[in-house]
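Ops channel
N.P.: pipeline sanity check, posting one input/output pair.
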């Protein structure tokens, strides 16, 4: 099983430049984490061609190439969806921007587990390169702790390549030498008595040469793989990947944090690491606050989604959604209150939370609008059928009045669904309903349902011995009558009329102003143009 092997990505090039595509690579390749957000980061330090890349490939199913260009390469593990691998490949030239100190700073800040690769020496003493790497690792941890942010433990997996079988005395000798390197480091104020065990756990692994003893190397790598497996803790072997080593770096923040750490490492200023420590702390708090705020929000949304899936509206959704929105953001803000104001990491996580909350609430709103629209159409159908059942027929103005009544009801119910923070445009929603109701009303007037209802009404009236009555109600119509009368004896007369629903217009043209009877009633000749508006009320009881 496992995931498909992915080609490694060069996060930092040979000139110490950080790639702009780091964040997107990690986001794409680490999208299926077990807990949805936090990475388990394993970094490998050591010289080229010691078997460092071969060890990562055998243990984690990666595709690192030890002959690749100098830089820092990253890759997801193909046998674990939670592990991101960081593999610095130092330059072969002494004058390089990729110094041991910078690479160790990067790995100490990001990695939960650091695999320190070294050649076996006849004396058992570490090489100068290994001493430099350990000194940089130790110094980095001490500087990060000196700002008062506490101790962040890490595991160093000390892999000795080209060695024979490990012995208890050999491991103890190596541990003594590591302790000596720690003891020789200058300590920051307040950490004079700091112990190595307070900052690091060490595991010593002896590995055959990866080329000269390939089979034995693979067997040793398989044993190490078992100790790094997610289910190792359930068996007889203790799992080396543990929560107390975690830097709590999530997928979204990796790119930002890597950029900050590498920038500080390259700047090599006295206060840069303290800033990095605060940034790491902000990263952790923002990630935790996002998770803590999202969890109760997601549970409530799941309950509402279950209600809506049964074609039911959430009672008081507008006000309840507003309270949930405010409460979720307030919980996040409380969880990040101790971070520096304007923290990019905190702002990024808050923006992500706002997008998540608005997206889910908008989806619930739209789903309920569709339910409400269906209820509105059903309501209009019931009212129209009731009118037909009572009267035996229905007039256009009655359909129009019913639609207006239903639209008024819909607007009232829609207001109860609105969450103000979503700032949704309701005009298209209302327009869509109006169009649906108009189409339904038009089809209903010519539908088989109307014909059946009308026939049933007539049959019931006939059985009761009653003549069917006309439709009850009040109809209103509007009219405009106009006349143009010019001089003449009446030999020219013309009429025109127009009607559309409750609106009608009638106009007359005649040349009869000179006739005596035209002024008979008033004694004055009629005006050339005369307009008379009319309102007609038709009351049927």
């Amino acid at each position: 099983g496992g995931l498909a092997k992915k080609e490694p990505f060069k996060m930092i090039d040979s000139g110490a430049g950080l790639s702009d595509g780091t964040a997107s690579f990690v986001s794409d390749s680490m999208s299926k984490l077990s807990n949805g957000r936090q990475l388990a980061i394993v970094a490998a330090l050591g010289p080229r061609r010691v078997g460092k890349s071969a060890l990562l490939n055998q243990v984690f199913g990666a595709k690192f190439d030890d002959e690749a260009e100098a830089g820092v390469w990253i890759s997801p593990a193909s046998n674990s969806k939670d592990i991101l691998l960081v593999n610095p490949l130092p330059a072969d030239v002494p004058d390089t921007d990729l110094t041991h100190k910078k690479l160790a700073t990067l790995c100490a800040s990001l990695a939960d587990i650091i695999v320190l690769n070294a050649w076996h020496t006849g004396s058992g003493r570490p090489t100068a390169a290994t001493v430099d790497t350990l000194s940089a690792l130790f110094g980095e941890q001490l500087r990060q702790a000196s700002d008062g942010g506490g101790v962040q433990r890490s595991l160093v997996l000390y892999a000795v390549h080209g060695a024979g079988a490990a012995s208890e005395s050999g491991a103890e000798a190596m541990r003594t030498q590591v302790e000596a390197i720690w003891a020789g480091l200058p300590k920051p104020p307040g950490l004079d008595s700091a112990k190595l065990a307070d900052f690091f756990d060490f595991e010593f692994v002896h590995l055959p040469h990866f080329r000269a003893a390939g089979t034995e190397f693979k067997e040793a790598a398989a044993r190490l793989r078992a100790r790094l497996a997610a289910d190792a803790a359930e068996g007889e072997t203790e799992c080396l990947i543990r929560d107390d080593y975690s830097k709590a770096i999530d997928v979204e923040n990796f790119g930002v944090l890597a950029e900050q750490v590498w920038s500080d490492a390259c700047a090599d200023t006295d206060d840069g690491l303290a800033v990095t420590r605060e940034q790491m702390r902000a990263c952790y708090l923002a990630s935790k606050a996002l998770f803590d705020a999202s969890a109760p929000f997601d549970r409530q949304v799941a309950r509402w989604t279950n209600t809506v899936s049964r074609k039911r509206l959430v009672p008081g959704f507008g006000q309840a959604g507003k309270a949930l929105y405010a409460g979720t953001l307030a919980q996040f803000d409380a969880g990040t209150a101790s971070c520096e104001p304007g923290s990019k990491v905190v702002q990024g996580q808050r923006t992500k939370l706002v997008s998540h909350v608005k997206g889910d609430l908008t989806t619930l709103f739209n789903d309920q609008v569709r339910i409400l629209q269906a209820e509105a159409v059903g309501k209009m159908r019931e009212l129209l059928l009731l009118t037909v059942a009572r009267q035996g027929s229905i007039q256009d103005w009655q359909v129009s009045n019913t639609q207006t009544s239903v639209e008024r009801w819909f607007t009232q119910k829609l207001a109860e669904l609105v969450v103000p923070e979503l700032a949704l445009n309701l005009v298209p929603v209302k327009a869509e309903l109006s169009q649906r109701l108009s189409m339904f009303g038009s089809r209903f007037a010519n539908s088989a349902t109307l014909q059946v209802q009308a026939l049933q009404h007539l049959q019931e009236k006939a059985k009761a011995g009653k003549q069917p009555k006309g439709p009850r109600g009040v109809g209103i119509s509007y009219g405009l009558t106009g006349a143009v009368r010019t001089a003449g004896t009446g030999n020219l007369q013309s009429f025109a009329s127009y009607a559309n629903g409750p609106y009608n217009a009638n106009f007359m043209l005649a040349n009869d102003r000179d006739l005596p009877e035209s002024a008979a009633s008033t004694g004055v000749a009629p005006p050339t143009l005369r307009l008379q508006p009319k309102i007609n009320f038709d009351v049927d009881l």
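N.P.: looks fine end to end. Residues 231-235, 269-275 have pLDDT under 50 and may be disordered.
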